[in-house]
Amino acid sequence: MASRHAQWHRERSARKFSATTATTLATHIYDLYGKNSRHQYITLELLLQLWDEHVQKHGWCCCVTGQAFDMTQVDLRPSIDQISPGSGYWPWNIRFTTFQYNQMRGTMSILRELQLLA
Asked: Which of 103, 49, 109, 58 is nearest to 80 (CA)?
Protein backbone atom coordinates (compact mmCIF):
# COMPACT_ATOMS: atom_id res chain seq x y z
CA MET A 1 0.00 0.00 0.00
CA ALA A 2 2.81 2.40 0.83
CA SER A 3 4.48 1.82 -2.54
CA ARG A 4 1.20 2.55 -4.39
CA HIS A 5 0.93 5.85 -2.51
CA ALA A 6 4.59 6.66 -3.24
CA GLN A 7 4.04 5.91 -6.95
CA TRP A 8 0.95 8.17 -7.02
CA HIS A 9 2.92 10.95 -5.32
CA ARG A 10 5.82 10.64 -7.80
CA GLU A 11 3.45 10.74 -10.79
CA ARG A 12 1.58 13.73 -9.36
CA SER A 13 4.85 15.57 -8.74
CA ALA A 14 6.08 14.80 -12.26
CA ARG A 15 2.86 16.15 -13.82
CA LYS A 16 3.03 19.29 -11.70
CA PHE A 17 6.73 19.80 -12.50
CA SER A 18 6.09 19.29 -16.22
CA ALA A 19 3.22 21.80 -16.24
CA THR A 20 5.33 24.29 -14.27
CA THR A 21 8.15 23.93 -16.80
CA ALA A 22 5.79 24.53 -19.74
CA THR A 23 4.38 27.60 -18.00
CA THR A 24 7.92 28.89 -17.42
CA LEU A 25 8.73 28.36 -21.10
CA ALA A 26 5.57 30.23 -22.13
CA THR A 27 6.58 33.11 -19.86
CA HIS A 28 9.95 33.13 -21.62
CA ILE A 29 8.25 33.60 -25.01
CA TYR A 30 6.02 36.38 -23.68
CA ASP A 31 9.01 38.10 -22.07
CA LEU A 32 10.90 37.98 -25.37
CA TYR A 33 8.15 39.45 -27.49
CA GLY A 34 5.68 41.13 -25.16
CA LYS A 35 2.05 40.30 -24.65
CA ASN A 36 0.72 42.36 -27.57
CA SER A 37 3.40 41.45 -30.08
CA ARG A 38 2.70 39.96 -33.49
CA HIS A 39 5.20 37.21 -32.58
CA GLN A 40 2.92 35.68 -29.96
CA TYR A 41 1.69 32.64 -31.89
CA ILE A 42 1.47 30.05 -29.14
CA THR A 43 -1.07 30.09 -26.34
CA LEU A 44 -0.23 28.59 -22.97
CA GLU A 45 -2.67 25.74 -23.62
CA LEU A 46 -0.99 24.89 -26.93
CA LEU A 47 2.46 25.09 -25.37
CA LEU A 48 1.35 22.71 -22.60
CA GLN A 49 0.12 20.30 -25.27
CA LEU A 50 3.38 20.54 -27.23
CA TRP A 51 5.39 20.02 -24.04
CA ASP A 52 3.34 16.94 -23.12
CA GLU A 53 3.92 15.52 -26.61
CA HIS A 54 7.65 16.16 -26.23
CA VAL A 55 7.77 14.41 -22.84
CA GLN A 56 5.88 11.41 -24.23
CA LYS A 57 8.23 11.12 -27.21
CA HIS A 58 11.61 12.13 -25.73
CA GLY A 59 11.08 11.88 -22.00
CA TRP A 60 12.71 14.56 -19.85
CA CYS A 61 15.52 15.00 -22.41
CA CYS A 62 16.66 17.35 -25.16
CA CYS A 63 15.12 16.25 -28.47
CA VAL A 64 18.39 16.90 -30.33
CA THR A 65 21.18 15.78 -28.01
CA GLY A 66 19.27 13.35 -25.80
CA GLN A 67 20.81 15.04 -22.74
CA ALA A 68 18.58 15.00 -19.66
CA PHE A 69 17.04 18.29 -18.58
CA ASP A 70 18.05 19.50 -15.12
CA MET A 71 16.24 22.49 -13.65
CA THR A 72 19.02 23.01 -11.09
CA GLN A 73 21.60 23.87 -13.77
CA VAL A 74 20.97 26.79 -16.13
CA ASP A 75 22.74 25.15 -19.09
CA LEU A 76 20.60 22.01 -18.82
CA ARG A 77 17.22 23.67 -18.37
CA PRO A 78 14.66 23.19 -21.15
CA SER A 79 14.64 25.91 -23.78
CA ILE A 80 12.35 26.58 -26.73
CA ASP A 81 14.39 26.40 -29.92
CA GLN A 82 13.17 27.70 -33.26
CA ILE A 83 13.91 25.03 -35.86
CA SER A 84 14.07 27.71 -38.53
CA PRO A 85 15.44 30.81 -36.77
CA GLY A 86 13.56 33.99 -37.50
CA SER A 87 10.39 32.19 -38.61
CA GLY A 88 8.62 32.75 -35.31
CA TYR A 89 7.36 30.58 -32.52
CA TRP A 90 4.80 28.63 -34.55
CA PRO A 91 3.86 25.14 -33.31
CA TRP A 92 5.58 23.51 -36.31
CA ASN A 93 8.74 25.57 -35.80
CA ILE A 94 9.66 24.85 -32.18
CA ARG A 95 11.34 22.06 -30.30
CA PHE A 96 12.52 21.64 -26.73
CA THR A 97 16.29 21.56 -26.28
CA THR A 98 18.69 22.32 -23.47
CA PHE A 99 19.48 25.99 -22.95
CA GLN A 100 23.14 25.20 -23.65
CA TYR A 101 22.38 23.60 -27.03
CA ASN A 102 20.07 26.47 -27.99
CA GLN A 103 22.75 29.05 -27.14
CA MET A 104 25.51 27.14 -28.95
CA ARG A 105 23.34 26.61 -32.01
CA GLY A 106 23.00 30.33 -32.45
CA THR A 107 26.77 30.76 -32.69
CA MET A 108 27.97 27.67 -34.53
CA SER A 109 27.95 26.62 -38.16
CA ILE A 110 25.76 23.80 -39.43
CA LEU A 111 28.86 21.69 -40.08
CA ARG A 112 30.00 22.10 -36.46
CA GLU A 113 26.49 21.28 -35.23
CA LEU A 114 26.49 18.04 -37.25
CA GLN A 115 29.92 17.14 -35.88
CA LEU A 116 28.68 17.57 -32.31
CA LEU A 117 25.64 15.41 -32.94
CA ALA A 118 27.57 12.60 -34.67
From this structure: 103
